[in-house]
Design brief:
The protein has helices at 2-16, 23-29, and strands spanning 42-51, 55-67, 70-80, 85-95, 101-112, 115-129, 134-147, 150-164, 169-178, 183-193. Strands 1-2-3-4-5-6-7-8-9-10 form a ten-stranded antiparallel barrel. It is built from two helices and ten strands; from the N terminus they run ααββββββββββ. The longest helix has 15 residues, at 2-16. It has a single domain, classed as Lipocalin. The two termini are 17 Å apart. By secondary structure, it is mainly β.
């Protein structure tokens, strides 16, 4: 638990001292890693994300249950084969037990040409269980940062479906659309409870 506290502290300090970003990197890699874990303390995820500008890139993430309705997730992806370019997303998700609305806050890091681009995301999501095996999740999330001493933000619309394949394995298909830049990111992900 001490390791997670140290990790949160480092991420929070990095957020306070974020540097200038490039909008294109934010739009191309924007995603939401909203997590819900049921009957498990950890969850391992692996998947693929794509859009028409950067093609396909593979990722994995680990989700940790912090309390009954609070989750931490870290996602890592290598997106260029010729260089060691890494995308990292660290998310804290809150899933209400009384209301349909869930929240997520993410710190995003992307290395590109030996520079680090940083931005943050905040999202609100509604989940709806069709039955015990199928759930739908839709919502909106905002990417925001500050560069050239100006605030910048953009809005993303999110929809996904989760299919429970077994007691410990689920698949998630998601689409994210950014109207400001006409970009659609799609992903396919498999989750394994540990």
């Amino acid at each position: 638990m001490e390791l997670f506290r140290l990790y949160y502290s480092i991420i929070f300090i990095s957020f306070l001292f974020s540097i200038e970003d490039k909008m294109n990197n934010i739009i191309n890699f924007s995603s939401s890693d909203f997590s819900i874990i049921n009957n498990s303390e950890f969850q391992f995820n692996m998947g693929i994300q794509s859009n028409h500008l950067v093609g396909n890139f593979y990722f994995f993430s680990i989700d940790k249950l912090i309390s009954n309705n609070l989750f931490f997730s870290t996602k890592i992806s290598k997106f260029q084969n010729k260089d060691l370019e890494i995308f990292n997303q660290n998310s804290i998700s809150y899933s209400s037990q009384k209301h349909l609305i869930n929240y997520s806050f993410s710190f995003n890091y992307l290395t590109d040409n030996n520079t680090v681009n940083r931005w943050n995301s905040f999202g609100m999501f509604i989940d709806y269980n069709i039955n015990t095996k199928i759930a739908l999740l839709s919502g909106i999330y905002f990417d925001f940062t500050n560069f050239d001493n100006k605030n910048w933000d953009t809005t993303n619309y999110y929809i996904s479906s989760k299919l429970k394949l077994s007691n410990n394995i689920a698949s998630i298909i998601s689409l994210t659309y950014n109207h400001d830049y006409s970009i659609t990111n799609q992903s396919l992900e498999f989750s394994i409870k540990l």
